[in-house]
């Protein structure tokens, strides 16, 4: 089961916006309503940010937003904060009844 | 407060077995599906297994099919992952995850995560 493709790293300055991409196939992102995004700080468990492509999880800042076009999903983080520095993973339901994660993007806030 | 606590990790030789447990509290366990997700050291996340709320439907990733078994005890509010024929590549932190909702048998919202238990497969 191949992982979804994410850029290995991205960076931006505090206050700027950043858009992370997640590329899959017609068997997962392209055909699924169920794309999620997670944030993981070092040494911690992942935290759900976005589910069902564009719905923010409880307690998640409205600076985080999700979208999808074709086989690519995106997570936009606006007004970057230092605390947003973390690893970000996408995930999609796949048509063989499995769940596939992305390769992860390390976000640096410089 | 919803909580998931994993246990049972440890060091085991290739070909050996381990049984992980996940104890749930703070929510009505019998109405939510549970997943296991793992993460190799310094690597990304990988979905491993899933048990529907009534355990009548379970599923496993191809990488562990035939070696791992997921089960749940809705009296004790626990989920177990029996891992046999362990390989070096099974090494990692194993997380227990509650799904917020299901649509039919699709339970795609990995909402609540435990802190994980570490499995090390090494000779």
Gyration radius of chain A, rounded: 13 Å
Largest sheet of chain A: 7 strands, mixed
Tell me the greatest interface.
A-B, 24 and 24 residues
Mean pLDDT of chain B: 95
Total strand count of chain A, please? 10
The low-pLDDT segments of chain A are none
Oligomer: heterodimer
Beta content of chain B? over 45%
What is the overall shape of chain B?
globular
The helix/strand order of chain B is EEEEEEEEEEE
Strand content of chain A: over 45%
Span from first to last CA of chain B?
40 Å
Rg calculated over all Cα atoms of chain B = 14 Å
Distance between the termini of chain A: 35 Å
Q: Top keywords for this entry?
A:
heterodimer; A: 110 residues; mainly beta; 7-stranded mixed beta sheet; 3-stranded antiparallel beta sheet; 0% helix; 46% strand; globular; B: 123 residues; 4-stranded antiparallel beta sheet; 11 strands
Describe this structure in words.
The complex is a heterodimer of chains A (about 110) and B (about 120). With about 110 residues, chain A is mainly beta. Chain A has no helices and ten strands. Chain A has strands at about 10, 20-25, 35-40, 45-50, 55, 65-70, 70-75, 85-95, 100, 105-110. In chain A, the strands form two sheets. In chain A, strands 1, 3, 4, 5, 8, 9 and 10 form a seven-stranded mixed sheet that branches. In chain A, strand 8 (about 85-95) and strand 9 form a beta hairpin. Chain A is globular, with a radius of gyration of 13 Å. By secondary structure, chain B is mostly beta strands. Chain B is globular, with a radius of gyration of 14 Å. Chain B is built from no helices and eleven strands. The model of chain B has no long low-confidence stretch (mean pLDDT about 95). Chain B has strands at about 5, 10, 20-25, 35-40, 45-50, 60, 70-75, 80-85, 90-100, 110-115, 115-120. Chain B starts with a strand and ends with a strand. The interface between A and B is medium-sized, with 24 and 24 residues.
């Amino acid at each position: 089961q191949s992982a979804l493709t994410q850029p290995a790293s991205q960076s931006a300055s505090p206050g700027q916006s950043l858009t992370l991409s997640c590329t899959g196939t017609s068997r997962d992102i392209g055909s699924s309503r169920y794309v999620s995004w997670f944030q993981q700080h070092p040494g911690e468990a992942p935290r759900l940010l976005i589910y069902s492509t564009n719905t923010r999880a409880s307690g998640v800042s409205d600076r985080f937003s999700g979208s999808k076009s074709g086989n690519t999903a995106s997570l936009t983080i606006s007004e970057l904060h230092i605390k947003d520095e973390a690893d970000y993973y996408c995930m999609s339901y796949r048509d063989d009844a499995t769940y596939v994660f992305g390769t992860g993007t390390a976000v640096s806030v410089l | 407060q919803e909580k998931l606590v994993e246990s049972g990790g440890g060091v085991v030789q290739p070909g050996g077995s381990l049984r992980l447990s996940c104890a749930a509290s703070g929510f009505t366990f019998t109405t939510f599906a549970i997943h296991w997700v793992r993460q190799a050291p310094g690597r990304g996340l990988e979905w491993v297994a899933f048990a529907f709320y009534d355990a009548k439907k379970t599923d496993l990733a191809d990488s562990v099919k035939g070696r791992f078994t997921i089960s749940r005890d809705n009296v004790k509010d626990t989920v177990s992952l029996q891992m046999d024929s362990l390989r070096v590549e099974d090494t990692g932190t194993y997380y227990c995850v509650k799904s917020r909702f299901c649509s039919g048998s699709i339970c795609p919202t990995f909402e609540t995560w435990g802190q994980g238990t570490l499995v090390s497969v090494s000779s």
